[in-house]
Specification:
The strands form 3 sheets. Strands 1, 2, 3, 4, 5, 6, 14, 15 and 16 form a 9-stranded mixed β-sheet that branches. Strands 7, 9, 10, 12 and 13 form a 5-stranded antiparallel β-sheet that branches. This protein is α+β, with helices and mostly antiparallel strands and 407 residues long. It contains 13 helices and 16 strands. The chain binds zinc ion.
Length: 407
């Protein structure tokens, strides 16, 4: 059995036209007008395919195949995008999953276990933190964040939900309708350069790295830059500059392979003639090992405290988000390798430096991921693309893996 590649390609192109941004790419954050249109489109596709459509309280969309009992084999990803994102991130996972289920149904193939397609809400974290849908699905959502958190568009979540059939209460209840899951599979673009550099069409993910996000501030004292001697300043920006350099050097020398990034900086008052009194910044680190995550957390923030005390500053920080690294179970890696060999496609192990819904589902079930190359390593950009022949290979691998898990 093989997927119908032309139909899959057509679906991806059709969905990619919903939410086209005049500035380029696709803008389809969850519960936006474009996203609601995409949801209606997907619902129709699921029904046309003859699958049982269902939506849970968090807006996660499902298409179920099979009336048999037992734990469900789930396949999915997300259809929301970042602002000016690409049309392949997430969508290829959902639509390849749909295509697999459609083919199984068309062939009248009898499975021993139910199989379900899932499209999770707000994987991209445009609302309140990443993975709203999959976190609701596994029951790991912070009620406070939902009720008090502002979305990245500056409005309370409740305001955005007002245009939908969902509420913060229904999101918190979503876990109650989640089936027991045997395994979760996700096909995704790599969003990095490794597969293309190695010229390999399939990556079998062995590890998804964990991440830790904080908003941080060095607080000093704003003073006149012409009259305050250098040694008497409490320059918050210099604290940040020192921390940026030393934290990067620390990670590079002690935990090479882990990542540390300062992505947004705001220095205030922010003018000529004024020594900066405050430096606010985003700080994140990522690693594939839980132990390293713990070590980095304690080492990096005590480094910040040391720098603050040396420079007469105060350091404060607030955790915004964190996810644990996930090791993919050996049995699923082996299964994917075996099926890939049977199909005759070259493959290699890859680590996912980006987060995915699979990582969240890992607290409830075994998960595995298949990556296909991202040309030039580009994603979250209008320039994001794929090579269609890689997708065909990846989607056929997904189909074979699903058949094995559900038989
Ligand atoms: Zn994605």
């Amino acid at each position: 059995m093989q997927i119908n590649f032309d139909r899959l390609k057509n679906d991806i192109e059709e969905l990619g036209r919903i939410g086209r941004d005049p500035k380029g790419g696709v803008t389809r954050p969850s519960f936006s007008k474009a996203d609601l249109e995409a949801r209606a489109w997907l619902k129709e596709k699921i029904r046309e395919a003859g699958l049982v459509y269902r939506v849970d309280g968090a807006g996660n969309i499902f298409g179920r195949l099979g009336e048999c009992q037992g734990k469900t084999v789930m396949v999915g990803s997300h259809i929301d995008t970042v602002i000016n994102g690409g049309m392949f991130d997430g969508s290829i996972g959902v639509l390849s999953g749909l295509e697999c289920l459609r083919r199984i149904l068309e062939e009248g193939y009898r499975l021993a276990k139910p199989v379900e397609l899932a499209s999770f809400t707000d994987e991209e974290g445009n609302l309140v933190g990443d993975f709203l849908g999959s976190r609701a699905f596994v029951g790991e959502l912070n009620k406070d964040l939902l009720e008090k958190g502002l979305t990245s568009f500056g409005h309370p979540l409740k305001e955005i939900l007002a245009g939908t059939e969902f509420t913060t209460e229904s999101i918190l209840e979503a876990r109650k309708t989640a089936p027991e899951i045997e395994a979760y599979l996700e096909l995704h673009i790599e969003q990095g350069p490794i597969l293309e550099t190695e010229d390999v069409p399939i990556g079998i993910v062995d590890l998804i790295t964990g991440k830790h996000y904080r908003w941080c501030s060095f607080i000093g004292s704003a003073s006149h830059s012409g009259t305050t001697p250098l040694e008497l300043r409490q320059d918050a920006f210099l604290g940040l500059a020192d921390f940026a350099l030393k934290s990067t050097q620390y990670v590079a020398t002690k935990y090479y392979g882990s990542m540390v990034t300062i992505g947004k900086v705001n220095v205030s008052p922010g003018a000529f003639s004024v020594v900066p009194g405050q430096a606010d910044f985003s700080f994140e680190f990522r690693s594939g090992s839980k132990e390293t995550m713990r070590s980095l957390e304690s080492a990096l923030f005590s480094l910040a405290d040391d720098i603050a005390s040396t420079r007469g500053l105060t350091f404060v920080s607030k955790i915004i988000d964190q996810t644990e690294p996930v090791k993919i179970p050996e049995r699923l890696i082996k299964l994917l390798q075996e099926e890939c060999r049977k199909l005759g496609h070259p493959f290699m192990p890859v680590t996912s430096g980006a987060g995915h819904d699979a990582q969240i589902l890992a607290s409830k079930t075994d998960v595995a991921m298949i990556f296909i190359p991202s040309p030039d390593g580009i994603s979250h950009s209008p320039r994001e693309t794929i090579r269609w022949e890689d997708l065909e290979k990846g989607a056929n691998l997904l189909l074979q893996a699903l058949l094995r898990l559900a038989s």
